[in-house]
Every structure is written in structure tokens, then in C-alpha cells.
Design goal:
4-stranded antiparallel beta sheet, 8 helices, Arc Repressor Mutant, subunit A, Sig_transdc_resp-reg_receiver, alpha/beta, elongated, Rossmann fold
Length: 233
């Protein structure tokens, strides 16, 4: 079955261009023009990916993504007329997978859609069995894309999950920021070093909420991050 792509865009010309480009490449595009309509359909229907304009009439694309992340890890590509770096950083840090600035090439957007879908299906979000190494405080369930810490289910964003998953799978290894960008985001040029630091910070906060006496994610000054011996049960 062809992948259904939700296009959330209030400019008819742009929506028509994307609809044609995606449809001609075998996708099934579905277009809506309002944020609330998009969220209603995302809750009720199955989509492979959403392309969301940042400047919608009834809400920002950022707000759509924040609300979406409360119930889904669906891949998201932002469309925007803005070029400010801070907007790009915000978009990526709240859970978007890519950020395309207008004007853009429809063929490029289709290529990015394919790359993100291939990446999301191959990064362990929907594969694998639950793993609970002896003595570990973490339980990783790759099939459900979930992690438990000391028996408590963690409420993680897509990239928090992928980042923590990588650290859990390599408990004795130290990863530099560049390695984490490449292994988790896989497009180092599209994100920034501070993105890694921000996600580490939010992960630590969620882990401390369960056990305030330990910090299992260790910072190795000048080297990067890794799980410490405190990651034991």
C-alpha cells in the first residue's frame, strides 16, 4: 500500500505543487489547510509522514508538532518562508525531522520524504524485541519504541528515544557530539551541536524525575557522552 502523506499548507499553489509531485512518485497526498483539521485527521487516520507549513492561519506549525508529539512519533517536515537559524533550531528540537525553506524544489522535498521514511523504518523505531541486560536500570523495547527506567515508562520524543537507545545499546562507549549527530540524526549538516546538548538535558531531567539520586548519562569533558556505571539497577 502506498504511503499516505499529509500536507498541511494554506497556500493552494504550494499545496497543489506538492500534491502533484508526491502523487507522481507513488505517494498518496492528502491536503488540509488548517492546524486543527490536521490534528483531527492525524488522530483518526494513518499517515506515513506530515509536511507542515510553519505559518498556518489558526496556529503555528510548531504548535502542531508539539501537539502531535503528545500522541505520535510521525515524521514531520516543516515548510517555512523564514530563514532565521533560531527557527530551524526550534523546529528540530521540538521533534521535526527536517526543515525546508521556501521557495523550494518539489523534487527535493520528495527526495527528503523518501530519505526520512527510509531512515525512520531502519533506525529501530519499529523493530526488535525488549532487551533488559542483566543489572541494567533500563529496559529497551524496540518493537514499541519504548524505554523503561527502573521500571517506569519514559515519555520520550523521537530523538530522545533514539539518543537514549544508542547509549543503552553501547553502555561502555563514549560518543562525541559529532558521532551522536551522525548516528541519531544522520544528517549532521542539518542540525547543530547544541541540539545534542539540549536533548541530553531533557533526557537527564526525565531520568531525575524517576531517580533524583543518580545521573546515568555521564559527560566526558572534551570527549562526549556515555552511560556511566550508575545506569545499574
Amino acid at each position: 500500500m502506498a504511503d499516505r502523506i499529509l500536507i498541511v499548507e494554506d497556500e493552494p499553489a504550494i499545496a497543489e505543487t506538492l500534491t502533484y509531485a508526491l502523487g507522481s512518485e507513488g505517494f498518496v497526498p492528502v491536503h488540509v489547510g488548517l492546524a486543527q483539521t490536521a490534528l483531527d485527521r492525524l488522530r483518526a487516520e494513518d499517515f506515513a509522514l506530515a509536511i507542515v507549513d510553519v505559518g498556518l492561519p489558526d496556529a503555528t506549525g510548531f504548535e502542531v508538532c508539539r501537539e502531535l508529539r503528545k500522541f505520535s512519533e510521525l515524521p514531520v517536515i516543516f515548510l517555512t518562508a523564514r530563514t532565521d537559524e533560531i527557527d530551524r533550531i526550534v523546529g528540530l528540537e521540538i521533534g521535526a525531522d527536517d526543515y525546508v525553506t521556501k521557495p523550494f524544489s518539489p523534487r527535493e522535498v520528495v527526495t527528503r520524504v523518501r530519505v526520512i521514511l527510509r531512515r525512520s523504518r531502519g533506525n529501530g523505531l519499529a523493530a526488535g524485541k525488549a532487551a533488559h541486560p542483566p543489572g541494567s536500570a533500563f529496559e529497551l523495547d524496540g518493537a514499541a519504541a519504548r524505554v523503561r527506567y527502573r521500571g517506569h515508562l519514559l515519555d520520550l520524543t523521537r530523538y530522545e528515544y533514539l539518543l537514549l537507545k544508542l547509549l543503552i545499546e553501547h553502555p561502555e562507549r563514549i560518543f562525541s557530539r559529532e558521532q551522536l549527530l551522525e548516528r541519531v540524526w544522520q544528517e549532521p549538516a542539518a542540525v547543530y551541536d547544541r541540539t545534542v546538548d539540549t536533548h541530553i538535558k531533557t533526557l537527564r531531567a526525565k531520568l531525575r524525575a524517576i531517580d533524583p539520586t543518580h545521573d546515568p548519562i555521564r559527560t566526558y569533558r572534551g570527549l562526549g557522552y556515555g552511560l556511566s556505571g550508575q545506569a545499574r539497577a
